[in-house]
Amino acid sequence: MPSVVAMTVARYRPEREPAPTSETYEIPFRKDWVILDALNHIKDSVDGTLSYRWSCRMGVCGSCGMKVNGTPKLTCATFLSDYVPGPVRVEPLDYFPIVRDLVVDLTDFVRKLARVKPWIIRKEENSPADGEYLQTPDQLDAYKQFSMCINCMLCYSACPIYGLEPGFIGPAAVALAQRYNMDSRDEGAAERLRILSEHDGIWQCTFVGECTKVCPKHVDPAGAIQQYKLTGATRWVTSLLLPWGTR
Amino acid sequence: MKADPHYTLYHPRWYRRHVSVWWWLQNRSYTAFVLREITSVFVAFFAVVYLWQIRAIAKGPEAYAQFLTRLGTPFFLVLNAVAFLFVLFHAVTWFNLTPKAMVLRLRGKRVADGVVLGLNYAAWVVVSGAVAFVLLRG
């Protein structure tokens, strides 16, 4: 095992340079370090000007998504030892505008997420006196996978369609829409389908499948989108054959 | 005087990257994806060949014989072989997609992807067998 590893980190300091550059740091190799530990080491002991996001260190908050050697990763869950002898290249997530160094602006996603109404929609709310909405373990199981999304944006960074068509609503937003559609307490599926079958919705997806591969929480956004396409197509055929039918 | 007149302190100046024309060479799954999309051209090619064949049959035995000789030329043999490989790739990737799009639930549990895939392949074999039976019977 090497004693030091070269880590090339993308830098963008808008007050100094018009376009991103990179800087290489020699960092001590430690078997138990993840990429985020190495970045923290650089920040604490080598170069305090390096900017990046992180919070929980345990794959829950979804803040520390970056590209490691070209692949979108949660840096808190990616071991340095998998990249020795190096060099390791750390870059900001693709397709989002870079604010500084490894920090990207996620406003676009936050707006898109709100558009798919990721909350439980009821035609009529029960009053608190009626008690909770009950759910069986099987009903929970139907959407649980999609509810594991931590909004880390690795799937957007892996999606060339999002890069080429920035209007595309994107993998995580569709997976989260599906999370509520599959929820037995929810009654908003038709409302969401209207939004998601628009031009920038599910039909932009041509099933590259990389979003599912990079997802650290096994949400399978690609699956969510394909299932949604099937639902959308079935609805469309039904409305064509039975225009008077109940929707 | 500020050093850089374009920069305002504490105000973000985003750097927006653009996607390279060669993005699909970045990793193998992107390349496989683009190849899969290109298979549509070869599917269309086979459709045109079938229409051509039907026209030749309608014109009579002489025209059909001419059609067969033309298909037997090295150019068409190579083209057909390449097109066949692409169409096979198209079919396999299409089948692999089905368990993603169709989630079957049996007694509350999700049916495994391999089972959905296996059933699709089985249906393909049965339908192909039936077609072959009808065609080869006479």
Overview of the molecule:
The complex is a heterodimer of chains A (247) and B (138). Chain A is built from 9 helices and 7 strands. With 247 residues, chain A is α+β, with helices and mostly antiparallel strands. Chain A folds into 2 domains: 4-104, Beta-grasp domain (Ubiquitin-like (UB roll), Roll), CATH 3.10.20; 107-241, Fumarate Reductase Iron-sulfur Protein, Chain B, domain 2, CATH 1.10.1060.10. A 5-stranded mixed sheet of chain A has the order 2-1-5-3-4. The radius of gyration of chain A is 21 Å and the shape is elongated. Chain A starts with a strand and ends in a 6-residue tail after the last helix. In chain B, helix 1 runs antiparallel to helix 2. Chain B is flat and about 85 Å long. The termini of chain B are far apart. The interface between A and B is medium-sized, with 34 and 28 residues.
What's the average pLDDT of chain B? 89
Assign an overall shape of chain B. flat
Range of helix content of chain B: 55-70%
Query: In DSSP terms, counting alpha (H) and pi (I) runs of 4 or more, how many helices of chain B?
Result: 4
H and E order of chain B: HHHEEH
Q: List how many beta strands of chain B DSSP finds.
A: 2
Report the sheet with the most strands of chain B, covering strand number, pairing sense and barrel closure: 2 strands, antiparallel
What CATH first level of the largest domain in chain A would be assigned?
Mainly Alpha
The chain-level mean pLDDT of chain A equals: 93
Percent of residues in β-strands of chain B: under 5%
Beta-strand segment tally of chain A: 7
Helix content of chain A: 25-40%
Helix-strand sequence of chain A: EEHEEEEEHHHHHHHH
